Amino acid sequence: MDAAFIIETIVKIVVILLIFSALAGFGTYFERKVLAFMQRRLGPMHVGPYGLLQIMADGIKLFTKEDIVPQNVVKPIFKIAPVITAATAFMAAAAIPFWPQFTVMGYTVHPIVADINVGILYVLGVMAIGLYGPLLGGMASANKWSLISAARSAAIFISYEVITGLSLLAPLMMVGSLSLIDINNYQAGGIGNWIVWSQPVAFILFWIAAFAETGRTPFHLVANDHEIIDGFGTEYSGMRWGLFFIGEYANMFFISFVMAIIFLGGFGDGTIAGAVQLILKVAFFFFFFLWTRAAWPDVRPDQLMWLCWKVLMPIAVLNVIVTGIVMMF
Question: What pLDDT score was predicted for residue 117?
Fold first, then answer.
């Protein structure tokens, strides 16, 4: 292992942390703008240049707010839970290729921290570990609303992890690899080679599961304001609450990258045009996360579980079986 490789890896990690931490903040700005446009709210649209003053004020408030730890909480677990959420979100980024490889002064740079041969399995596994953030935070908060949220998060995330895995099984059977680089290269050659055309059912299943995995509307039940206040984050303040927030938006970006790479061709042949197309695909998925918040109501917890186990699960299993039969013949 040479020094150049070590330096390159460290630089990649720092760049990912800086960029996606900043994108979490800009994600809130874009969400405010999208919701304000759809709901005709004047504040986020016109307070300051392009509505930037409101997000700046919220950022200052978040960084300067007192870090309050309630008296009856389980303090070690209460303090570590937000760190788990943010850390696992960024750990998932290690196996995601964000850009085609390029050359700088004769040195080839691979914009992926670790091109491991089980990349997608690693991403799903790390994101599943992120469940422990809201689960432990809610259980340690000594608050009934937080406890309800913790129970919901466990039920929802574990259930929809199954759908996520089954929806990806059929495309992975076609590609024959778990590496996101290999999946991207499998679709090289143009829009006609995208996996979404041969696996539309898997694509829709994964997209639905992505909303549950990220806790976004209409599956926003772990922190449903009109039912359980802020859920597992009710007793948190300052940057501890901010870490939950950063983890949520980072997960939205990362799962958008995964969807774009697996189903929509990724960056294609590795050209600059392909890289720009990847960014546009991710932007579309991220916008869709924001749009549904303005357009859809939340469902009930029992409806969410019914959808998972009685509708999506049989469809996912059937899709895997049909894919296997087609590949055999």
Answer: 85
